[in-house]
Design a protein that fits this description.
Elements lengths: L21 H6 L4 H8 L1 H13 L4 E8 L11 H7 L3 E7 L4 E7 L13 H18 L3 E7 L4 E6 H15 L11 H10 L6 E6 L5 H12 L4 E7 L1 H4 L6 E5 L4 E5 L5 H20 L4 E7 L4 H5 L10
Parallel strand pairs: 3-4, 3-6, 6-7, 7-10
Antiparallel strand pairs: 1-2, 4-5, 8-9
Helix pairs in contact: 2-5, 5-6, 7-8, 8-10
Amino acid sequence: MQMRGVHAPLPRHIPRGVQPALGALLELRRYGSAMRRALALDHEAREGERAQSRSQGMDYAESRPYSPGDDVRRIDWRVTARTGRGHTKLYRVQRSEDLCCLVDQRGPMRFGTRAAFKSVVAAELAALTGWAAAAGGDRFGARIIGSDGEVRSGPAERSAAALCAALAAGAGDAVPKDERSLDALAARATEETATGTRFIVISDFADDDATFLRATQLLRARGALVLLWVLDPVEERLFPSGRYPLTDGRDQIVLDAAAPGVRAAHAREFAARRERLARCAALPGTRCMLVRTGEDLFSSLGRRFALREIG
């Protein structure tokens, strides 16, 4: 029996494999409402509306007679002069119901030591984001970082299905078609979206600090931002000392985890990545969630990202 006002637990789901399957992505539709709660999309919409009401990005609606306490900067001088009585301009808040997802499928995402590649986890999170938009009747659009995949903003039910198809189709590419940086995709996304759009970015965020900063600044200037950090446990703690063969399905390299300086360099890079995510997550209108490969997907989404959780 479910208590009133208490949401049912998030469903359990652990993605597996090296390629996302179209059928599996489409089946995630049943979890759209759960994902909507996990991402707090309805809360983000309310917060965005309040933020816009304090901004200058509003459309003129009408004028009404002036009342004591009205902002004198909004006096409608034209109507005041015509009627001989003070009037105040009223504005209609612009509210976007668009949700835009940027999902990373570049080469470094095709790695994993626990149940699934990071790219598979990211694909499932992106599909869930589309189904979450559909559950709320929002408009939805997406861009795939690492391919030429793009889903124009439109009714979420149709757009989510199109994104699932694009992610499954691109999974078979031996080499990602497009290795543009995160900030380049963010710039293009902001050019084609309305003010107030809510952005969900799904990546391992391995881009350098300057690239990450430019991308998040562009997106935050446009609307609320949620970062879903997809991480393999090996990135937190490197393999024990030894030599490990790694392959992307085409080329093979050997990671010498015993070589002097390798472990220290890896630790520094990861600490820097963790710090920039934490700084961004602390900014108004921005949240970050951490999802590890091999973990229960929805349990991960139920936790807020914090420095103490990792490292």
